[in-house]
Amino acid sequence: MAADSAWHYQFRIIMLGDSTVGKSSLLKCYTEGVFLESTSQTVGVDFYVHFLEIKPGLRIKLQLSVTRSYYRNSAGGMLMFDLTNRVSFESIKKWHQEVMETVKPYHVAFVLVGHKSDLEAERKVGQKEAEKLASSLGAKYIETSAKTSQNVKEAFQTLTSVIYEALESGKMRPNEQWDGVKCKLPPEAQPKVQEERRKKKCSC
Family, per the entry (predicted)? Predict the structure, then answer.
């Protein structure tokens, strides 16, 4: 892994969902490549850190947390439910609303994750139903399994891409009063954000 200084953007991502959906398992699988057998308690770690390249030459540092106190300073939210537990699916709108009310006026990108896809025989939530909910929340949907590693990398890459797209479109931008996104790129390397700022200054 490269040195901590070798990143261009830092994104904070909050893991959201009921206590039994496997948030810590998914994080451990993604950041350490291991499957956490016991999921009765969340591991007492504030942040997991992972690096990835969103596109060639653009390095992203992810700070991943399950701690509610980080709601306001998160650029992305991974809304998780257990595919074998319908109650956890029905809680998603509550988690989404809770974050939306906390982060105002900042924009947050979401991905909906149906976890424990390896337990297909015990499935209680259909894919089409989950996709419909994701669409209503303006989120993409993906099914994962920390046990088999199915789509684990893809889930985090998808959310990272959605955050980056929000930056490119101007919906989201680094802010000194907000820790959701940090940027080390020089201004000239942020053309779209800079262009939007110039337009606002010129409007009269």
Answer: Belongs to the small GTPase superfamily. Rab family.
pTM of the full predicted structure? Answer: 0.86
Q: Which residues of 166-203 are buried (b: 16+ CB within 10 A; e: fewer)?
A: bbeeeebbbeeebbbbbbeeeeeebeebeeeeeeeeee
Q: Give 17-61 pLDDT, tens digit per residue.
A: 999 899 999 999 999 988 866 544 555 566 799 999 988 989 999
How many structural domains comprise the chain? 1
194 lies in a domain?
yes
Q: How far apart are CA 68 and CA 178, in angstroms?
A: 16
> Does residue 1 lie within any of the structural domains?
no
Q: Residue 131 and residue 121: Cα distance in Å, rounded?
A: 20
In this predicted model, what pLDDT tens digit does every residue of 139-183 receive, in sequence order?
Answer: 999 999 999 999 999 999 999 999 999 999 999 988 888 899 999
Query: Does residue 3 belong to any structural domain of this protein?
Result: no
What is the dihedral sign for C-alpha 158, 162, 163, 168?
A: positive
Domain that holds residue 67: 9-202
